[in-house]
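quick one
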Amino acid sequence: MHSLWDDAEAAGFTGPLGPRVYTSRLLGRDKSLVLHGGGNTSVKLREKNVFGEEHEVLYVKGSGWDLETIEPAGFTPVALDYVRRLAQLASLPDPQMVNELNTHVLRAGAPSPSVETILHAILPHRYVDHTHADAVLSISNAPAGDKRIREIYGDLVVVVPYVMAGFDLAARCAREFAAGARAGTIGMVLLSHGVFSFGADGRESYERMIQLVSMAEDYLAAHKAWRQKPAAPAPATAGREEIARLRCDISHCAGFPMILKVNDSPKFLAFAQRRDVTRISQSGPATPDHVIRTKPLPMLGRDVAAFAQAYCAYFERHAPRAKEPKTMLDAAPRMVLDAALGFAAAGRSAKDAAIVEELYDHTIDVILRAETLGGWRAVDERDLFDIEYWDLEQAKLRKAGMAPVFGGEVALVTGAASGIGKACVEAFLRRGAAVLGLDRNPAIADMWRRADFLGLACDVTHPAAVRAALDLTVKRFGGVDMLVLNAGIFPASQPIQDIAPATWQATMSVNVDANLRLMQDCHPLLKLAPRGGRIVVIGSKNVPAPGPGAAAYSASKAALNQLARVAALEWGKDGIRINSLHPNAVYDTALWTDEVLASRAAAYKLSIEQYRRNNLLGAEVASRDVAELAAEMCGPLFAKTTAAQVPVDGGNERVV
Ligand SMILES: [Zn+2]
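structure w/ zinc ion:
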């Protein structure tokens, strides 16, 4: 591991917190040091208060910030003397510790200081850096881990046995550090947890972290444990439907829909296929910190009921010894290891699932390295329980707000790159769904750069391309719960006698045939939607009130409408609802350029403004209005409705 310090880059970070922000980001850039909100840093500054009195302020990473992207505002100032005194108390319950920290924050509106704040306060150095470095965890979780750590570092670090995070750990570290620190000490290793470094300036503290972690890496390399080559795995064989079924089982066990992200890369697949996978995967996480997101163990195979039973037994084993009553969390797995599937991560959102996947990516490294050193060992199950059911975590449960209406669900939108389709993507994302957007326009791939969106360039008239897109979607999100059939074409206006067979066929091919195939391909997935499948058909005013010159379009939309009605009849027993909406005169779509709009308005002898609002309500209908209705049709408001056809046109005399 090398220092990423760069003088020119560092010069860009000015102000009293500049070096602190810069080196925190350097740590955050390396995922083998910190993952997702893990790790924390601090600096102690002398400042004057409003009376002109000097005092020491500890700026420590606030909760909710990631080191990689932290800004000065992400550091919370706390009164250092007060926090140091807390460390001397004989005991302090963690909820009370959090209260003491929060009531000694010196800037209104600052984020809550890290629960490891006291640890930063007790170290008598200006800059303090803390990571959960993979290399250090690999060694401390190997046989005689503590001995190896002492051997590697000597007096460079003070070694502290495993104690769960919170007040007890801080108090223990305060004692051990005071007793164990020598002149050359530059850090502290907390066994099975992580490593601290410190220094007089930002660069020194950061580079000491790099030095300490490099020493662990060198030790692993010397024992041929640093680089792991996965064996060539047998290919994954689990298909779309099997994955969707697993997600359905997990969601039912959890009591809410979950995203399931499959990883069948050689590394994960080979790990899942190891002969000793039971032993090495069923002992615990790389560091207890992970359990909040991952639960203590991955599920081996796909028997969700058996996993849940074992999880309940674990709760029953440990809950009785807690000081206060504990509320059991859902018993569903967050990680799956399966020889035919590889690995799968479950989360309430695509982002949560991606975090679980990344945590396990590093866990595999830590496990395999410790195995090479002679055998992987995790901390005791009771320690895992103590973190998973920590008072502070239980308090978060009580405070948790309502989940978004489509949290953990997956929507597929066709024609997603513009107009109504684009607005639908936004409407579903806003409601917490993960979204697959299909469009012929390749720009779809990058239109929303976020974990819960997958954009694929795909012509819906190509069956193989659609199936490949569904394969990718199910691997990324675990299924399809909602289908918005939006893609469609509107050929140029022509009287019937002039319609070329090719125009007619092209219109039918996109507006009817492609939608039939999508419905057929999605049916097995929609059947496995944890809350029941839903389809929304973006129809047209031309279904109830066709227009002259639009025979191909009107006939194709009418055929699609009839298809939807029959689907409602056939698929009701599968819990699938299908509803249509009929928009009219939605002008903020790609079809309606300013010129077309001006010429159509002129043809009716209306101003553009009058033409836009030429309906009973005198209202302008926008893509967003249509998309909001499409999303609502998938929500609880329409839970008991199928085969409905709702106009969204501002009121049209011919439809009324
Ligand atoms: Zn930590």
